[in-house]
Specification:
The protein is 35% helix and 26% strand. The chain is an alpha+beta fold.
Length: 488
């Protein structure tokens, strides 16, 4: 597919074809491109800056909760994965294996990391010997490789970027506290940074991370009603500790295995931002993840243009002084093209400044969520230039709040409790179905085959409830309802 700049910035409306819209947005908004190897992606500066902002704000949260960063090898001896049977079984179909290097066949194949529990477990077994060494609270920013059969940029690629936290604790209670703490960090980040309300819950056994005792996820609803798992936190018990002999002497000199956790969020979160907020016109970016929060589009020719540009640059400098990421667009494309480009790229606030505005000491301002007039054009406000910069942080916060409220309303409107098998398919066709479920994999397989829906999680805030499975009528298994949905 060509990714050259095109005069027509229009995209297939999201309301007509989400898949076509998503693919076009990736390229027309300059987010990413296909890599030369099948299933890989190249993140272009605009898309990578979104990831940098995710990374920076997550990293602050990790360090505030006592975690430190480290780095572990990309190549893992194949034998490491075989030590934890469930783990190797879960990842075997996705592994990339190096068998030759330096012109010779290797004595033992090396796996390109799909995740790092095994290699980190090996190192923890060397580093931990006493209860005084605990807890170990380490995070790694890295790339991983999982051989995807149906790759899709940001959502599922053969290689992607992520962070993976790996911690070791003296007791089950401490490890579970950590697991749930980081689950909460992800949900708070999604809400307060990405403006995406999440359903927080525990995965059913069939959906757990390979080798985990319990897996907790945050599930966002995209604009087509599908779920996107956006972050996971796993309690691994002593499974990996036993496989890698990670032991410590407690205060009574008793030898015990540590309890471990792992948790991660990846570049898939960029896909979540695209799909949770976009509309027929393109991206709608939450301000705290927008590479450009405000664009100032200048107008005019000749001497007028020079005066307007000078004032636009002054305004931009004043905005930068209060922490706003701002761009002045004075390129030679038409004002209409530049405004449409800003809209397509999801820039939260657009400011228009021309000779008449300058003479009156005002400008036109529109947000990416602005109402439209009878002709479908965004409603613009006339605002004074003096003091505008100082108001911009609050305007961006207001935009975040409006975007979050819109997403919350969409989630609420497209979620429903379902007790009737006959209406189950209709509900998962538009959003989330909260049902009683027997927990049997055979039942889940039938639902997936007929409706392409899977159990997303058992909501943390669900009320205790027992009854009959919505699908097969057998007794429900979890003491709560389960959210089913179609998912990316």
């Amino acid at each position: 597919m060509s990714t050259s700049n095109k005069p027509n910035l229009g995209v297939t409306p999201l309301s007509e074809d989400v898949s076509a819209w998503y693919n076009e947005i990736i390229f027309k908004a300059d987010l990413a491109d296909h890599g030369p190897a099948k299933g890989t992606m190249v993140m272009k500066p605009y898309g990578y800056t979104i990831w940098e902002l995710i990374q920076r704000q997550l990293d602050d949260r990790f360090k505030a909760t006592g975690h430190v960063n480290a780095y572990f090898p990309l190549l893992i001896p194949e034998s490491f994965l075989r030590r934890e049977a469930d783990h190797v079984e879960g990842f075997s179909p996705e592994l990339a294996v190096v068998t030759h290097a330096g012109g010779k066949e290797l004595g033992e194949p090396l796996v390109v990391r799909p995740t790092s529990e095994t290699v980190i477990g090996e190192m923890y077994s060397k580093w931990i010997s006493s209860h005084r060494d605990l807890p170990v609270l380490i995070n790694q920013w890295a790339n991983v490789v999982r051989w995807e059969l149906r790759p899709r940029i940001f959502l599922r690629t053969t290689e992607f970027l992520w962070q993976e936290g790996h911690t070791a604790h003296a007791t089950h209670e401490e490890a579970m506290e950590e697991t749930l703490r980081m689950h909460g960090v992800y949900a708070e980040f999604a809400r307060n940074v990405a403006a995406i309300p999440m359903v927080m819950g525990e995965k059913t056994p069939s959906e757990r991370f390979a080798g985990a005792v319990a897996t907790y996820s945050i599930e966002g609803m995209m604009r087509d009603g599908k779920a996107l798992q956006s972050g996971t936190s796993h309690y691994l018990g002593t499974n990996f500790a036993k496989a890698f002999d990670i032991t410590f002497q407690d205060a009574d000199s008793q030898l015990k295995h540590v309890h471990t956790t792992s948790w991660g969020m990846s570049t898939r979160m960029v896909g979540a931002v695209i799909l949770a907020h976009g509309d027929d016109k393109g991206l709608v970016l939450p301000p705290r993840l927008a590479p450009v929060q405000v664009v100032i589009v200048t107008m005019g020719r000749g001497d007028d243009a020079e005066a307007v540009l000078a004032r636009a640059n002054e305004l931009a400098d004043a905005m930068r002084a209060v922490g706003v990421r701002v761009k002045v667009d004075a390129t030679d494309a038409s004002p209409g093209f530049r405004l449409n480009d800003a809209e397509l790229k999801g820039i939260p606030i657009r400011v228009e400044l021309g000779p008449r505005d300058l003479a009156g000491g005002t400008c036109l301002l529109a947000t990416r969520l602005a109402d439209v007039d009878a002709n479908g054009r965004p409603v613009k406000d006339t605002v004074a230039l003096d003091g505008l910069a100082a108001t911009m942080p609050q305007r961006l916060d207001d935009f975040h709040d409006a975007l979050l409220a819109r997403a919350q309303d969409f989630l609420d409107q497209n979620s429903a409790v379902v007790d009737d098998k006959s209406t189950f398919g209709e509900q998962v066709g538009i959003g989330f179905a909260t049902v009683l479920h027997c927990g049997r994999e055979a039942c889940e397989d039938e639902i997936k085959a007929q409706h392409a829906a899977t159990p997303r999680c058992i909501p943390m805030d669900g009320e205790p409830e027992q009854g009959a499975c919505v699908w097969c009528g057998s007794p429900s298994a979890y003491g709560k309802r389960v959210v089913f949905a179609r998912a990316y």
